[in-house]
Design goal:
Blueprint: E1 3-7, E2 33-34, E3 40-42, E4 45-46, E5 48-53, H1 58-62, E6 68-75, E7 82-86, H2 100-105, E8 109-113, H3 130-143, E9 153-158, H4 160-171, E10 176-182, H5 192-205
Parallel strand pairs: 1-10, 7-8, 7-9, 9-10
Antiparallel strand pairs: 2-3, 3-4, 5-6, 6-8
């Protein structure tokens, strides 16, 4: 079962806050060190990596793009349950600089991706589509995190990354076990061609 959590900031109704639990041992999260070029290290170990994402969408084919070098940060034990963090529009994996190590120290393998066109990922000249980012994240989970053969990830996203996380969970339940959308924003209606096909099917059934 896919679990979804949606956080909305600015709501007028306030829910009772649970009392915080006191930790006998404080959680220590070593800060990531970022170079001016956006390369991340943790305790002197390089955690910025890349993989080649091969897009299959028409927007890439029309531009002759067959491979997009994708940058991501990976922290935590390689065999720990995977968590994917997806930044918002105009941001990068640096957005999660205060979260990556804390989540890893809680017992997870954390991946923070630079979406195509942002951060250190390649920025090909083409018409970008939200489907591209969904496919890119699915490729990372499948090819890098090893999801799809029983293992599934929790995906958390901010802004358009929240939309990407929700779409990823809906389209690829074999890769995703839970979703957290933080101020999610994006296109939640079906694409025009899908909407037209659905409307035609509805009219034909009447």
């Amino acid at each position: 079962m896919l679990r979804v959590a949606i956080l909305v900031v600015g709501a007028t109704a306030l829910l009772p806050r649970p009392q915080p639990k006191i930790r006998s041992t404080p959680l220590r999260a070593a800060a990531l060190e970022w170079s001016p070029a956006g390369v991340a290290q943790a305790d002197g170990t390089l955690v910025s990596r890349t993989f080649a994402y091969a897009p299959t969408l028409a927007c890439a084919a029309d531009a002759g793009v067959t491979s997009i070098e994708t940058s991501y940060v990976a922290v935590g034990a390689p065999d720990a349950p995977p968590v994917l963090l997806v930044h918002g529009f105009g941001a990068s994996s640096y957005h999660w600089r205060s979260n990556v190590n804390a989540i890893a120290e809680a017992g997870y393998r954390v991946y923070a991706v630079d979406l195509c066109g942002f951060g250190r990922s390649e920025k090909p000249v083409m018409d970008y589509d939200s489907d591209l980012w969904v496919e890119q994240c699915a490729a990372l989970l499948r090819d890098v995190a090893g999801c799809g053969s029983g293992a599934r990830a929790v995906v958390a996203g901010n802004s358009i990354g929240g939309f990407t996380a929700l779409a990823l969970g809906a389209l690829h339940p074999e890769l995703v076990r839970g979703v957290a959308s933080l101020n999610g924003a994006g296109r939640f209606a079906p694409p025009p061609d899908v909407a037209a096909a659905e409307e035609a099917a509805r009219l034909a059934a009447e």
